[in-house]
Amino acid sequence: MRKLALILLAVLCWLQYSLWFGKNGVHDYLRVKNEVAALETLNMTFKVRNERLFAEIDDLNEGREAIEERARTELGMIRPGESFYRIVNENSFPKHK
């Protein structure tokens, strides 16, 4: 009877060790769970970025207004006959002493 109890105790210890420290144990589960959470966050960031890019593509495909706006803001283009005036704030220049 004592021998059986020792064998059962040894099996129980081995099962507990496998559960906590073995392959696919609790530690691996927690590590994979954290990786999945991090990847889901990264995936959500990419989804938002993709939605913004698709909206910009749709805007550019729909009409000339978006193309004209980008040409004016990013490339500094103006139409023939237009004058461009830039209003500069006085605080943007260094003061001379």
UniProtKB/TrEMBL annotation:
Gene3D superfamilies named in the record: 1.20.5.400
Keyword Nucleotidyltransferase found: no
Membrane-protein topology: Single-pass type II membrane protein
Major localization listed first in the record, in broad terms: membrane
GO biological process: FtsZ-dependent cytokinesis
Superkingdom of the organism of origin: Bacteria
Oligomeric form and interacting partners: Part of a complex composed of FtsB, FtsL and FtsQ.
Described function: Essential cell division protein. May link together the upstream cell division proteins, which are predominantly cytoplasmic, with the downstream cell division proteins, which are predominantly periplasmic.
Protein name: Cell division protein FtsB
Organism, scientific name: Arsenophonus nasoniae (son-killer infecting Nasonia vitripennis)
